[in-house]
Write the structure tokens for this entry.
Amino acid sequence: MSKLTSTDLKGIIPALPTLVNADDTLAAGDMRKLVGHVYAGGCTGVLPIGGTGEYGALPHATRVDAVAACAEASKPGDIVMAGVLDTGYYDAIRAGRDYAAAGANCLLVLTPYYTNPTRAGLRDYFMRYADESPVPVLLYEIPYRTRVAIPPEVTHELSRHPNIIGMKACNTDMYHFLQLAGGVDDSFTIISGEDSLFPLQMASGAKGGIVVTASMLPAFWVKMHDMVVAGDLAGALALHRRAMPMMAAAFGETNPGPMKSVLDLFGIAAQKVLTPLDTCQPERSATLRAEVQALLES
């Protein structure tokens, strides 16, 4: 199989919840069903075991099983992007190798957090990781979770590494995003990581989106993506505005609790969330269900 490149990073890639049984083992059948649901909606790949996948709540073996289930349900050429959210280098590189062996064709590697690295430390961490990773790497910057941002100049330097092909951009500072986009070339693809900013980030240089709520509404987000690509930004923004009540409900409690609570709409029974998250409040779940149904019917 040919190695994934930056030009392969496009379209809508849902950030998938990890579906588990009552004993917290992987609900592999439901996981494959969810993967089939998003591909049927036109998505170009899947992202298991990221933050939406409750990475920190899962044992390593279950993460590997989740990646394998997603890879088995994907076709050659589909993006199977495994999240790597470990804090330490050795755990992170071991995890990435195991996910690649399970079928991931790229890795989404989170900024190292808690240690408060310097600019040089961030650069060196990702350079070393990319040197040793068996599959291409995407940077993952999400400072409202980690309190670690990658300065645009550091990202520009990292973008020139041949095994670093892109970035999931979750920094909600749009000026930061514009600075980032202004210093990379076609060997590096920026992927929007924020449902709430998706059309704006696409219009400003992103080539696609890693979208949480695309797990529920893949065709809706693919339509919005295609409108931006076709030059209809106004239409995409209007569509996005219609989704804002749905997003408010989906992210009103820590993700993926609300989203898991309505997956039965798509024939998925595994809705359990993992400690320390709690089951979504019934009122919020009811609101989200109504908003999702309205978008499905529109």
Notes: The longest strand covers residues 79-84. The domain at 6-231 is CATH 3.20.20.70 (TIM Barrel).
